[in-house]
């Protein structure tokens, strides 16, 4: 089983890296290079599926692009957990899930990035937060009102890339459909800098 699971995860990583190629930015380039050089042949944790993840099959089924097949095949192979490094209330994280595929706390160890997926359920407001790492989000399905810094919130839809500079406050609120997004951190990856 682990051989087939590893193949599905590699196909998903390949598809996510291909998606990053359409964003011409330093952070997307760095994420691509780091993901491509990492080896996922080592040990991996058993999959974890949270109640919130029950939203995923419908969200993924609505996708009609090059990511839908590898994501559909691998979504139950991932290790899902609550976001926020234990600093968010359960009333919020009961409606969210994150998987860190590659990273210091990831399914596969990586020292130079955190890379994975974020699921945010319908009508969830992820409050303004910040961290020392630079961050890139790419919305795969759904939409959210996104606020960066002190500026007004702007509606971001599937296909959008959102780049946060190190230390830049940001928050997002989903609507009726929820949101599935790719995310990546570069630079200072320490969880101790994460603050709400």
UniProtKB/TrEMBL annotation:
InterPro entries xref list: DMSP_lyase, RmlC-like_jellyroll, RmlC_Cupin_sf
Protein's recorded name: Dimethlysulfonioproprionate lyase
Alphabetic keyword roster: Lyase
Molecular function, one GO term: dimethylpropiothetin dethiomethylase activity
Xref: Pfam families: DMSP_lyase
Lyase is among the record's keywords: yes
Classification of source organism: Bacteria, Pseudomonadati, Pseudomonadota, Alphaproteobacteria, Rhodobacterales
Presence of keyword Lyase: yes
């Amino acid at each position: 089983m682990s051989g087939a699971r590893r193949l599905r995860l590699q196909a998903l990583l390949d598809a996510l890296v291909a998606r990053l190629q359409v964003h011409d930015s330093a952070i997307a380039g760095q994420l691509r290079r780091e993901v491509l050089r990492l080896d996922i042949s080592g040990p991996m944790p058993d999959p974890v599926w949270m109640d919130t993840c029950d939203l995923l099959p419908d969200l993924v089924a609505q996708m009609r692009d090059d990511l839908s097949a590898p994501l559909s095949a691998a979504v139950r192979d991932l290790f899902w957990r609550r976001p926020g490094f234990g600093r968010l209330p359960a009333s919020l994280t009961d409606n969210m899930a994150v998987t860190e595929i590659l990273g210091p706390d990831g399914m596969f160890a990586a020292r130079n990035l955190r890379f994975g997926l974020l699921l945010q359920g319908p009508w969830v407001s992820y409050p303004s937060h910040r961290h020392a790492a630079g961050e890139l989000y790419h919305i795969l399905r759904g939409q959210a009102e996104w606020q960066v810094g002190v500026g007004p919130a702007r509606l971001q839809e599937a296909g959008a890339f959102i780049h946060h500079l190190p230390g830049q406050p940001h928050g997002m609120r989903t609507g009726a459909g929820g949101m599935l997004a790719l995310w990546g951190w570069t630079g200072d990856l320490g969880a101790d800098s994460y603050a709400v």
